[in-house]
Amino acid sequence: MSNGGLQTLRTSTPEEGYALAVNLAQKAIELTQPSEDIRKLLRPVYSTDANSLIAVSQVVALHFQTVAFANNYWNN
Amino acid sequence: MSNGGLQTLRTSTPEEGYALAVNLAQKAIELTQPSEDIRKLLRPVYSTDANSLIAVSQVVALHFQTVAFANNYWNN
Amino acid sequence: MSNGGLQTLRTSTPEEGYALAVNLAQKAIELTQPSEDIRKLLRPVYSTDANSLIAVSQVVALHFQTVAFANNYWNN
Amino acid sequence: MSNGGLQTLRTSTPEEGYALAVNLAQKAIELTQPSEDIRKLLRPVYSTDANSLIAVSQVVALHFQTVAFANNYWNN
Amino acid sequence: MSNGGLQTLRTSTPEEGYALAVNLAQKAIELTQPSEDIRKLLRPVYSTDANSLIAVSQVVALHFQTVAFANNYWNN
Amino acid sequence: MSNGGLQTLRTSTPEEGYALAVNLAQKAIELTQPSEDIRKLLRPVYSTDANSLIAVSQVVALHFQTVAFANNYWNN
């Protein structure tokens, strides 16, 4: 993401698309909790909790749906 | 959003689209809990709770899906 | 919604579309718990709980997706 | 739903479409818990719990998306 | 599902489509917890818990969306 | 998935598509919690918890929606 923020949802592969989906999932958390220190404190909580990890994966799945559609599922 | 409320879902970039998605996610909370004081009291609760932050991100992801589709994924 | 119930998903603006989405989210709750008294007892519970408010916003987001699609995203 | 089960997703109005969505949401619960007695025991639990009611509304919202799409959003 | 696994999402009626959606929802659970004994131990837990039943219904709703789209909503 | 990561969402059957959806669901968990040891510690927790298993199935359902759409629902 350039310093002008998110300019495109296009990626060359599903792998890059998945990485963008992970970024999109994190973006809302950074906007909702701007303090990097607090986010760092929370990391050991959610990254060692099975249900939190599953919930993170669900948000990524929604964004991956969006990114995949934006890239015509990389079918070209 | 003008004082006539939400008039369009069109934005010029995905970055602006994401900001609109965050607004759309907050809008239902403001309609459901109109008291700004109560919302302010809740802020330290959800903004320091990993699962609440992930749940917020999920709502933004759903609205971002809608806004992205409305803007043809900014592919023009 | 006329007394014949929900006759259309068309609205003239996204703002009206969002209000319809809120109605659609409430409709299932009224059908599942027809007692207005009980619903009134529950209001202070969910409207002062951050996770409940986020969950309400998620249901509105799903209905807003549906209403937006029904109105071609108000792009006409 | 006729005794041959669900034969169509078509309804004449969004109101009927919403009622079908409620039926579709209940159908999985009846298939997962066939005992009507147990389901009746559970009713006072979820119908007086704000988060359960919101979760029910979310399932109805997903099915309403499906039924609305099946009926071209009753735009004809 | 033949022994070659899932070969098609096509069904002749929405009723069959709903049954396929239930199978698709169960499939991930069987893949994640291959032990039938453990799954049997869990059955009385989720099948008598309102929130678990609602969560099951939500997964079925997502798969029913997919199966309905695959069958053009049985509109032919 | 080749060592270049995810290159395509195309699969020849829904069965393979479902397996890809399971991989996509796991991928976010591996990215969020890179330690295989920690993930192994969590396995007995979520794989014997009904609600965790249902939540896993929900993430797979979202990815299966994406993969099915990418493959035109294997209708060709």
From TrEMBL, chains A, B, C, D, E, F:
UniProt xrefs under InterPro entries: Hexamer_Tyr-coord_heme_pr_HTHP, HTHP_sf
| Protein name per UniProt | Hexameric tyrosine-coordinated heme protein
